[in-house]
């Protein structure tokens, strides 16, 4: 039996219509195509579904079945997994006794990324890509360009890098006009490169979420906004102090360089960790979601800082083996003691105010 599989990787069919997927059978696929065309006539998956029906009607020399399978919108990995599960469902519904082969119908390379997933379940005879013929006149070209510019994903993929490239030359002219040093061009180019890299790695979403959290924190009066700023300043100071410690010492090995960096910066890093921890604990308390175990965080920071300080001091010859043993023991007991103490407090006063 030949199984014609219409692939909709981003689940336009499920999101834009009330059809439940997978859709199996000629009439069912045709009905789904009509529903999708009614909901969004410009969706290319409409052509995929109708092409599947067309291929079904044109094959009369063997048993044939047509089905539509969909993924999910967003993650390619999750979409491929969803398509694989729907293919399993379709294969389980077939009653053919002979081997089943598949002919995939897609609308582009993105949907064809699921081919390995389907091939692991069924032999694939071929992939049929549906390309809609367009008139080649000026009006058609204008409409196509307009559609591309209206698509947010296309704008971010094509127009943003193009705009960045076009900005480099005028920025260079502006820097020369303002008599800025040559390093200014390098800084500008570096910033633009970081932006392009962030776009390519999807980091702009993380940055947008961070900005939204900061804005929300400012509007709602969250303490963590202040403590995070203070913690960032303390970490910068700690980094500078660590570098200064290395420069002031006669470093003979990489281990001593690492120890010097840790020795000079660990106190500042510990202060930053404690500051941010207390800010978060305060916000949890103010939002009535406080739990006693949250108080473990600053003690853990102190514990880790004590251990790192003792080890780095020992490597630099600033502490004896006995003092190192005391630092390791104190750090361990501090972490274990705080865990036990707040666990007992949470058990006895669960739901009660901490103060």
TrEMBL record:
Origin superkingdom: Archaea
Assigned keywords, A-Z: Membrane, Transmembrane, Transmembrane helix
Transmembrane segments: 156-174, 180-198, 219-240, 297-317, 324-345
Iron-sulfur as UniProt keyword: no
Coiled-coil features, chain-numbered ranges: none
InterPro entries (alphabetical): DUF373
Any one Pfam family match given in the protein's UniProt record, by short name: DUF373
Protein name as catalogued: DUF373 family protein
């Amino acid at each position: 039996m030949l199984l014609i599989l219409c692939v909709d990787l981003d689940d336009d069919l499920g999101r834009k219509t009330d059809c439940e997927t997978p859709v199996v059978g000629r009439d069912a696929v045709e009905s789904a195509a009509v529903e999708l065309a009614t909901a969004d006539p410009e969706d290319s998956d409409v052509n995929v579904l109708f092409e599947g029906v067309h291929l079904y009607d044109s094959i009369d020399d063997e048993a044939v079945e047509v089905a539509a399978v969909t993924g999910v919108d967003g993650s390619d990995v999750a979409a491929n997994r969803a398509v694989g599960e729907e293919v399993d469902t379709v294969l389980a519904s077939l009653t053919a006794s002979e081997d089943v082969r598949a002919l995939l119908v897609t609308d582009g390379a993105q949907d064809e990324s699921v081919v390995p997933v389907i091939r692991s379940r069924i032999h694939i005879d071929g992939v049929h890509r549906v390309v809609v013929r367009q008139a080649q006149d000026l009006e058609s070209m204008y409409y196509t360009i307009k559609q591309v510019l209206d698509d947010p994903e296309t704008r971010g993929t094509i127009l943003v890098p193009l705009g960045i490239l076009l900005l480099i030359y005028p920025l260079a002219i502006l820097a020369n006009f303002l008599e800025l040093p040559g390093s200014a061009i390098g800084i500008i180019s570096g910033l633009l490169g970081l932006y392009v890299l962030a776009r390519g790695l999807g980091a702009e979403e993380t940055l947008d979420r961070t900005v939204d959290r900061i804005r929300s924190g400012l509007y709602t009066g969250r303490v963590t906004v202040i403590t995070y700023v203070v913690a960032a300043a303390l970490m910068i100071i700690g980094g500078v102090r660590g570098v200064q410690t290395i420069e002031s010492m006669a470093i003979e090995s990489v281990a001593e360089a690492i120890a010097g960096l840790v020795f000079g910066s660990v106190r500042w890093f510990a202060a930053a960790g404690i500051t941010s921890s207390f800010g978060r604990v305060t916000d949890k308390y103010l939002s009535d979601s406080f739990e006693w175990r949250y108080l473990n965080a600053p003690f853990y920071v102190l514990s880790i800082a004590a251990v790192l300080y003792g080890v780095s001091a020992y490597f630099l010859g600033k502490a004896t083996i006995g003092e190192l043993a005391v630092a390791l023991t104190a750090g361990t007991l501090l972490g274990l003691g705080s865990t036990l103490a707040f666990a007992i407090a949470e058990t006895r006063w669960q739901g009660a105010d901490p103060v």
